[in-house]
Amino acid sequence: MNGSPYFNDLETRPAEEREAQLFSELPALLAKLQSGMTGWQARLAGIDPASVGTREALAHLPVLRKSELTELQGRTPPFGGLAGSRPARVFMSPGPIFEPQSPVSGAWGFARALYAAGFRQGEILHNCFAYHMTPGGFLLDDGARALGMAVFPAGPGNTELQVDAIAHLRPAGYTGTPDYLKIILDKAAGLGRDVSSIKKALVSGGALFPSLREEYRARGVAVLQAYGTADLGCIAYESAAVEGMIINENMIVEIVRTGTGEPVAEGEVGEVVVTTFNETYPLIRFATADLSAFMPGQSPCGRTNRRIKGWMGRADQTAKVKGMFVHPSQIAEIARRHPELGRLRLTVGREQEQDVMTLHAESAVIDEGLRGKVAESLAAVTKLKGAVNLVPQGSLPNDGKVIADERSYGG
User: Does the domain spanning 320-405 belong to CATH 3.90.226.10?
Assistant: First the structure.
């Protein structure tokens, strides 16, 4: 680092050198998994590790989906025979899916993303990702401390207290969901508190819409975004060039045709599939259910790894609303609670730079009492508030779509 615009030299090495290193290390990783982890022994049975030294060969290995993780972990607790050494912490994501944390500092890879966003050693980070049960808070906390920063573990909520802490500690920047920073800035303005120390932010857990990024810029905050998951850590991140998201080092990213393991052509939208070399939790061809596409060429910032367009929606109709996933299965649960309803469709949109959702429900009876009961079920099942629109029977499209994400992601 030492004043360099790059976290280390790995970011600017020739692309061919990176590719050669990753695929020279992959056979050894596969051999280790076959010999030491029961879950991987079953999944990789009959595969010669030495033959998997190219992207073309990797594409013949089976894709691992989140639904399979749930099944494997149920049969062989706690991690389905897919994890290695003793973890530092264990987390639980919806499913439920349990994720082990590596004891190695910085293993999730967010230090690189923070550095690209302008964070530096000795600064204080105001971290608003949740630390409870799921690893969001720890993902950024781990990266910041690996970078040599101090962290204020704010988590979400208690906004007035957060404003007090920012005014006192004068942190250099913010990490959290894209929308919550606006809530903090608006609260501070209403209270007349000085939070001007926050000049930069690295956001994740939801889409950073262009209009919101511009609002932050006008308020003196440079905001970049990172893309990661609880299972994999930081997959890709923006640099100051703001031209796509640069894939992190030490992982292999593929874009495949949704529902298959077949790679698509560059520029074609497909599902993000990742292979990671994390010794505590190695994952081979893990399907994220997120949609994206490879971009041609290299970033103007000088980093040479491949770029993706960023998060472009979900392959499985799942939507991320205010940093939380809403699944089709949850809409089905609401239908079970209200058998008097017909088809249901949840639409997700934006109003005043905030995510909003509306559940459209076919009903023979249109009255406020039923609407209120359905709204209560929506909040209880999704843990999010949303509007309910009761419509006549047969008026919703018969197209199989349960969740319609109507937000524009650009790109």
Answer: no
